[in-house]
Every structure is written in structure tokens, then in C-alpha cells.
Design goal:
Elements lengths: L1 H6 L5 H14 L11 H21 L16 E9 L2 E9 L5 E7 L1 H19 L5 H14 L4 H6 L10
Antiparallel strand pairs: 1-2, 2-3
Length: 165
Amino acid sequence: LARLNLNAQKLHPRAAELLPKVCKAVGRELPWRNSFLSLPARALETTHALALAVDILEGYDPPGRSRVPIEPCAGLGAAATEAPRGVLWHRYETDAQGFIKSACIIPPTSQNQSQIEEDLRKLARQMSHLDDEKLCLRCEQLIRNYDPCISCSAHFLRLHVERLP
């Protein structure tokens, strides 16, 4: 949602053309803050990415050389990679032969954990009138709106409702 909210004016013209229609369909203008609007946001981003890919492919001129030779060495490297579910932070250390000595990967899901928990608390209060099965379903949907990796979203989620007085 943040990417779309902050960069809507930079959408490819094909995606920008769809934005007013999508806003009308979901019943609100940007900025969107409801995590349940992440799917229409991703649809717009996908349209943007596909249109850019077509533009790149249509103008592609292959390079003369696709890679350069390297000599393995000891070193340390860190980077941030933008991904659909957020920023992936990673850091690697190599030995003199170029083998990985240590690695640290911080996926977006772990960065979103506190917000997911806060949203779950709010949703549970707002939806407490639902029966347990429907409440669990809505909570599962909320978690999946944060787009955890497929193995996480398919296997980790086992919710139960504990009603407090």
C-alpha cells in the first residue's frame, strides 16, 4: 500500500489509466490504509510492471559481454532488495575462497510482525460479534494481506479464538 500511496503519480500510463476505475471500484481515493486493499494495489503494480517490461523488451539491445570474471576473496556485503511484500535486508560474509561464512536475512514478514499483531487486535475487537469460524477466517485473511511467503501462509496459520469477559 505504501508504494502505491507514495508513487501513484509515477505509474506507467497503462496502470495510471486504471487507477481511477480501481478507486471507484473499491469506494475510496488514495491514500489507502486498509490492508484488505493490498490486492487491488498489487494488481495496479502488476499492470505497471508488465507495461514497463514490455517497454524494456521492445527497446532491448543485448550487451556484448554478459559477465565479467571474478577472483574469490574474503569480504562483507549487505543489501536491501525491494520485493512485493516489502524490503528484504540481507548481509553476507565470505572467506578467502569466496565461500559464505555467515549470512543474515531479514524478510519483510518479520519487519511487519508488530503491525500485523496490532491490526489483528483491532480486527478482533471490531469483528467480535462474528462466530469463531468466521472470525478466524477474517483474521487469516488479514494476515495473508501482508503477503507472507507461500510456505508461511499455507502452513503456519492455526488460529483459535479465546473470548475474554
